[in-house]
Specification:
The chain has one domain. The protein is built from 19 helices and 21 strands. The protein has a seven-stranded antiparallel beta sheet. A seven-stranded antiparallel beta sheet has the order 7-4-3-11-10-2-21, covered by helices on one side.
Length: 536
């Protein structure tokens, strides 16, 4: 791959990192180092991914936790494997039960949106199938950070503060007090550089490590979760937890200009990214910074989201044939619908998210693309007393309309925003990539892939480049450093352009590519957060 190593459109002053024996890229420096430490102890890229993911539940609790979901794409022994570690709705959570509590849509906080957490099962599956070290060894760094504490980084403190202010206003019931006791022990959010620790979190991680996850689903932690739910009339039970296990799945892909772009199949929204790429691959883009390029990217993403939101749900309930919609014929049909002016797609508004993404690689050729989330920041606002475990609120995306493809049903997995990505060429790994952040994720995937393949940007430059985000209708948000003359040109095409100062809304990405001839690793990390690459 021939890259431009002089392109730095984002004022980050970061450069692509090169290494030969191992690399970990993620949104928190200490977490990246935790993964690298595991590599140096003899672990492989899979062990490093688990260690980094577990550490992030402590080091970036504003976006993920033990009580969340996860997805992974794993390249090992010249094959790509997919893991879906997203949990289903509890067996007693029905549309009728929700409406009986006075709701017309599923709320964002409290017990109603809580689904079975899948992340711990995902760690166990990865460890058992591909790991080299024991789970007990791999989770040590996370346990130590939870037990002894760590100083908050600037972006982490910023989002922690936002969450505290919001929760202080809206989470007033007794069931939410453990959140404040855990994450605001001094009656406020911890500040930049201040040490925070969670003995309950350390205890939970140690229990998961000692039992290979059994305690979380069929032991003491499961009992604590179920007892907490029962006390406040929640829906999740020990039976729900005991019946869960993460699922190995076959990744899906589209061919894009000589490369294969891979995503996890539904219930994740990776399909949206592939649909958009399948549309734009029929265009000839000569330059990145033109109004034509941006207009076609935005319009393709609108069409892809329209299809995705209309059909994506638990694959057991989907009626869409993936082979049909990822075909060249379907891409051509949708491409023909892109006109010279901005279109008005079917209306819906993508909500915000809260997620962490990481990429790992070792010197043996193993590579992992991993993503983990509680959703909407800390999740449901519920922390299981004494455990440090924030429970996710993924059920918020279910519909209470029984005719909707993503209608709530007991045991069903909802439409999921978090998606890991992977790139191959000619049957060989190029590497993992991802851009976390709610419905920005497939939009980030489209932009990063095109930056890399169409415009030859190196990993860091591909992440630094100004981003746009379609919100709804004709509304498109852009970053402050987005070229002003192109923003004006898009307005003339009918787009409603809004400049947004908060960089966090445009996603946080990581990339690791491997040079096919030398095996050298090259990585880029997100300038919009406290991102870091640990390598050797």
């Amino acid at each position: 791959m021939n890259f431009d190593f002089h392109y730095h459109p984002y004022p980050s002053q970061r450069t692509t990192v090169f290494a030969g024996r191992g690399m970990v890229a993620t949104s928190q420096p200490l977490a990246a180092q935790a993964g690298l430490d595991i590599l140096k102890k003899g672990g492989n890229a899979i062990d490093a991914a688990i260690a980094t993911a577990a550490a992030l539940t402590v080091l970036e609790p504003t976006s993920n936790g033990i009580g969340g979901d996860a997805f992974a794409l794993v390249w090992t022994q010249n094959k790509l494997h997919g893991l879906n570690a997203s949990g289903p709705a509890p067996k007693t959570l029905t549309i009728e039960a929700v409406k009986a509590r006075g709701y017309t849509k599923i709320p964002a906080y409290g017990w109603v949106p809580v689904t079975v957490p899948g992340a711990p099962s995902g760690w166990v599956e990865l460890s058992l199938k591909f790991g080299r070290l024991s789970l007990k060894e791999v989770l040590k760094p996370a346990i130590e950070y939870a037990e002894y504490g760590y100083p908050l980084t600037p972006i982490l403190a910023q989002y922690w503060g936002y969450a505290y202010k919001r929760y202080k206003q809206i989470l007033t019931g007794d069931e939410f007090q453990p959140w404040f006791e855990t994450f605001a022990p001094k009656g406020r959010a911890p500040m930049v550089g201040e040490i925070w620790h969670s003995e309950g979190h350390a205890s939970s991680l140690r229990s998961i490590a000692d039992t290979d996850g059994e305690s979380f689903y069929r032991g003491e932690i499961a009992e604590q979760i179920a007892a907490f739910a029962e006390h406040y009339k929640g829906f999740i039970s020990q039976e729900d937890l005991a019946g869960y296990r993460a699922e190995w799945v076959t990744p899906i892909m589209v061919h894009y200009r000589g490369y294969d772009v891979w995503e996890i199949p539904p219930n994740g929204q990776g399909l949206v990214a592939l649909l958009a790429l399948n549309i734009v691959k029929g265009f000839n883009f000569t330059e990145k910074e033109t109004v034509d390029t941006y207009h076609k990217q935005i319009e393709a993403m609108k069409l892809a989201f329209t299809d995705g939101k209309a059909h994506i749900t638990d694959p057991s309930f989907m009626k869409m044939n993936l082979a049909d919609v990822l075909s060249d014929e379907y891409g051509s049909i949708r491409r023909s619908e892109i006109a010279a002016e901005a279109s008005l797609p079917l209306p819906y508004k993508p909500p915000s998210g809260g997620t962490v993404y990481l990429a790992t690689a070792d010197g043996e050729g193993n590579m992992v693309s991993f993503i983990q989330s509680n959703y909407m920041g800390f999740g449901s606002g519920l922390v299981v007393p004494g455990t440090g475990i924030s429970l996710q609120n993924r059920g918020h995306d279910f519909s209470l309309d029984s005719a909707h493809p993503n209608a709530l049903m007991p045991g069903k997995r909802t439409f999921h925003t978090i998606i890991p990505g992977f790139l191959t060429k000619g049957g060989h790994a190029v590497g993992p990539f991802g851009v976390m952040g709610g419905y920005m994720q497939p939009q980030g995937h489209l932009q990063v892939v095109m930056n890399t393949i169409d415009f030859g940007l190196n990993p860091q430059a591909a992440l630094d480049a100004p981003r746009w985000q379609w919100i709804e209708g004709k509304k498109v948000q852009v970053e402050p450093h987005f070229p002003q003359h192109l923003a004006h040109a898009l307005v003339r095409k009918g787009h409603q352009i809004e400049v947004v100062l908060d960089a966090g809304g445009f996603g946080r990405g990581q990339i690791i590519w491997r040079d096919p001839e030398t095996g050298v690793l090259m990585g880029g990390t997100e300038p919009r957060t406290d991102g870091a690459i640990a390598a050797w």
